[in-house]
């Protein structure tokens, strides 16, 4: 694409009033619906990053594993994909718990380079296992209500996207409630504030870390179930989430679920509007540029705090 | 660190260099290309060692300098009819300049944030390269083929990468024994304390990244001319970046020769796995990563000093587990 093409596209867009008014509502809806999903995957990455200071490079692939659980069960038994949500949550919860307990906990104090390399190694292992079981081609679910939608003020809203959005927001709100109101949630927040002091208060750090990672994986698995309802997946799709995960975690601010929710929706909007204004090929460039500027100019994020909680 | 005091080491180093210089006399096609690839990864591991091993800034996306160098040479040679060596020089200096410009804001980030920032830069440059018509977009770019036939090309790139490796080792050796190296290590150990002791971190960090960028970019430039075809998805990958870090950690971060040894070892294993277990190569590489960071987080040399008995290996884990 040339710079002149870009200008031509934007001039076309400005001159075409009728089309723009029609599109604006649709883009807004798309942005919000996509944003809810981004918010929730961002939260799943952000809790591990905020509490253990580990950059989990395997999170994208864990999301994909959740998608594959849904794919397999809905194809084998014919269960509705939305009903497989608890199964993918539980199975990814156990996977995450085992990974943290038997692998990551061994090097948790080893520093940034060690933990990052470890999670990348786990990422490769998970990708290869997915490749062996489900092969490299794209897999998708196709329930009967797939193409159905309704219209509000000229904007088309697919039922599936709306349900995905609602479930993602509900899970995020539920997580916030869990961290604030339950004893386990409080012990997780205490560990992130000061691991040594938490240990002196009788909190088992290793167990808390395993639980945190398991919650993050479970949330990722749930998001995978929702993702495969919207788009087909292959074992390598997980890498595409990386910048979204980073952006939501940074923009939302360390240790703030409300912030992640807000920033997920902002990013969804940015993505949708960049498609409308610049064209689909500039979507990722715009997202990356925004991500880097947030990192440089606003490293604390929108609602960042000193610690998680 | 390897002791460099005795004259013995100079003789051993010189002997190995002479051996590698004369090796193409007896070796043919495949082995020459394999060794060239090993030299290239040795250069990459050594250049990442300068910014991450010495200076402590984990530039996980350092591979974007590789892509930058590869594309600079490709564009200059195809669109502007440059010959290889002037294009190479421009690629190296251009990447260094780019690292200085980008480093002004990005090097102010620390720890995890710097790592995530460099990964963002990698993705950004890949997307930009994919969408520019100057770089041939997503379908890649074809470079002129090395004149003089395939055999001559093999020897040329063998000596090119070998020379680059020797220069990068010499440069790292010089840095590790100079004021610059002490400043880098001070910044790695504690940046605030270093600045209290009169070391202004900003220019040193920038210098470390610029040197690292220079060598990474030259390796990328050589790779582009060697392969004679590149595309954005291939040269802007995160995977070789992680491999570079694995080599550095395995050989010993912040040592002169460690990353070179790590590069040879990992590339050898990679080649073996590629040829024998094609479908499992990601799994095996991933497991190597996991075992290396669990059992030898300080590298080979530390492992041999500790001893190889199982109880000693486990005692090493106890230090960093929760």
In short:
The complex is a heterodimer of chains A (309) and B (322). Chain A has a two-stranded antiparallel sheet with strand order 1-2.
Provide the descriptors you would attach to this structure in a database record.
heterodimer; A: 309 residues; 72% helix; B: 322 residues; ABC transporter involved in vitamin B12 uptake, BtuC; two-stranded antiparallel sheet; 15 helices; 2 strands
Q: Would you give an account of this structure?
A:
The complex is a heterodimer of chains A (309) and B (322). Chain A is an all-alpha fold and 309 residues long. Chain A has one domain (27-297): ABC transporter involved in vitamin B12 uptake, BtuC, CATH 1.10.3470. Chain A is 72% helix and 3% strand. Chain A has twelve helices and two strands; from the N terminus they run αααααββααααααα. Chain A has helices at residues 3-15, 17-52, 59-76, 85-102, 112-134, 159-181, 183-193, 195-200, 205-230, 242-252, 257-278, 283-297; strands spanning 149-152, 155-158. Chain A has a two-stranded antiparallel sheet with strand order 1-2. In chain A, α2 packs parallel to α6 (159-181), α10 crosses α11 and α11 crosses α12. The longest helix of chain A is centred in the N-terminal third of the chain and has 36 residues, at 17-52. Chain A is globular and about 60 Å long. In chain B, 76% of the residues lie in helices and 1% in strands. Chain B is built from 15 helices and two strands. Chain B has a two-stranded antiparallel sheet with strand order 1-2. The longest helix of chain B has 28 residues, at 149-176. The chains are: A mainly alpha (309), B mainly alpha (322). At the A-B interface, α5, α9, α10 and α12 of A face α5, α11, α13 and α15 of B.
